[in-house]
Design goal:
Elements: E1 21-24, E2 52-57, E3 70-74, E4 80-81, E5 87-88, E6 91-93, E7 95-97, H1 105-115, E8 120-130, E9 135-147, E10 156-162, E11 175-179, E12 187-190, E13 193-194, H2 202-214, E14 217-228, E15 231-244, E16 254-256, E17 262-264, H3 278-284, E18 287-289, E19 295-297, H4 301-308
Parallel strand pairs: 7-9, 13-15
Antiparallel strand pairs: 1-8, 2-3, 2-8, 3-6, 4-5, 8-9, 9-15, 10-11, 10-14, 11-12, 14-15, 16-17, 18-19
């Protein structure tokens, strides 16, 4: 198994490895199946491992809200409690409420499309919308996680992040992972997370490894042994991984300089000498954050052609 480990000289290799009311569904009567009373007192990831669901599209042909929504079910659990208080393998909800994520209209549309194609893990709660003429189930999303690929996930769902441990050998407990929707010792450390079995592209893998280090990812994975100079230890092999859906940050970049030819996040003084190419930036330039995290002009064919012959 190819898996990530963390050494002093290889910190970056960790990741390789109308007006209406909404009612929340009632609490469960099944012991151990719902959030424990002391969950708020838990430490680290173990306090954040509840109410995670997978979603799949509804292909039935009938009028909304009876059809056209999505089916949701708790990951790692055989039963889910629906809006009517009954337990089932999965629950139908007519709508998804994304308002808690403060997404733009375009971002919400994309997230909703992903959910309706089964490419998400959602955290939230199932409730009921009561209107004068109809009532239907709704899923209130508190977190959304998009899949890296369209492959079917297999294995156990975990929320994984860097443990912060730096080692000079391997295997080493560089990853802390929490089994979702579980209250009996849900968190453990692992020798790493191998994302490559997911079939993701190199670009997707790089993004996943970065997220694992910085913010954490959700993985559907199985445990495999990792062996090295320091002995043997459990690692995770992911069939699918998910990165968090968040609203895009506001663009901090703006044009500056006497002639508006400079793209920066601060006011910049320049000599007021006009050059023909400055008109190209005004007409074709897009001032925004670049790959390195700094403000700059995004290179486009139109801008390049104009600068070549201003």
């Amino acid at each position: 198994m190819k898996i990530a480990f963390l050494g002093v000289a290889a910190l970056a290799t960790l990741a390789l490895f109308p007006a209406c009311a909404v009612d929340t569904a009632p609490d469960s009567g099944i012991p151990g199946e719902e959030e424990p009373a002391d969950v708020g007192k838990a430490d680290g990831l173990s306090s954040d491992n509840w109410t995670y669901y997978s979603a799949r599209p509804d292909y039935r042909k009938c009028m909304w809200p009876m059809c056209g929504g999505v089916f949701v079910k708790r990951v790692n659990q055989p039963q889910t409690k629906c809006a009517d208080g009954k337990w089932a393998k999965e629950c139908y909800v007519a709508d998804l409420d994304w308002s808690a994520l403060a997404l733009s209209e375009a971002e919400e549309g994309e997230a909703d499309s992903l959910a309706r194609s089964g490419q998400v893990v959602l955290r939230g709660s199932i409730g009921k919308v009561n209107q004068k003429t109809l009532s239907y189930a709704v899923f209130k999303v508190s977190e959304g996680w998009r899949s890296a690929t369209q492959n079917e996930p297999s294995g156990i769902f975990y929320r994984a992040e860097s443990s912060g441990i730096v080692c000079i050998t391997f295997p080493c407990p560089v990853v802390e992972a929490t089994r979702l929707n579980r209250n009996l010792k849900p968190t453990a450390t692992y020798a790493g997370v191998d994302l490559t079995p997911s079939g993701a592209t190199e670009e997707q893998l790089n993004a996943g490894w970065q997220e694992l280090n910085e913010n954490g990812v959700i993985v559907a994975a199985k445990i495999e042994k990792v062996t090295g100079p320091a002995g043997s230890m459990d690692g995770l092999s992911a069939s699918q991984f998910y990165t968090k859906i968040s609203a895009a940050k506001a663009n901090p970049c703006f044009t500056s300089g006497c002639s508006g030819q400079i793209c920066s996040d601060t006011d910049v003084m320049s000599t007021c000498e006009w050059k023909p190419e400055y008109a190209c930036y005004k007409q074709y330039g897009k001032c925004e954050l670049q790959a390195g995290g700094k403000c700059g002009w995004t290179k486009t064919d139109e801008l390049a052609a104009c600068l070549a012959n201003p």
